[in-house]
Amino acid sequence: MTSRHRRRPSLMISKRGSHLRQIPQPAETGDAGLSRALPLVGRCVTLRETIRACESYAQPGMRARVRKVRGCGLNGAISVTLDFTEFEPFNKPFEASAWLDQHLVVQLTAREAGAYVPIEDYFLMGVDQAREAMIPLDDRVSSALQARFQDSGRDAGEYIAWLEEQLAEANPGLIEDSTPGTGEPF
Description:
2 domains; 22% helix; alpha+beta; two-stranded antiparallel ribbon; 9 strands
């Protein structure tokens, strides 16, 4: 078989009626191919500022687990299924008031408005936008810290303060003299 007769691995041929058409596969449809986003599946991610473009529940700083990544269209767009379930206590302080109340005033969170869906699809304009919107985390560390925090019995809004306390306890020399009144006056 000559190279001229080899079928390109990135194309499928579909017979529709009496016409043949070429259907691009994920490697052909994205800014660098869907395969670059697939390692995110199953991973815990922290969402960044660019997630705001999706105009939904997700907010910067929230955490979610990536359940699916799939191509959706010929222009490289992808759909990423995020699952917020295991991070609900962590995410609650990040929830934004972006939903209308009965007086048409924007002051409700998705949860308060009854619009919270713990597993949701987010459509992004390509793999690069997905990589900008999500930072993969080491699941073992984040899960262990989250479990310890929940065991502490503290309110979900205190997670950052709790983390700082854990860091200070683990590094006694981190804070030198913190006695009140030793610094400069305001």
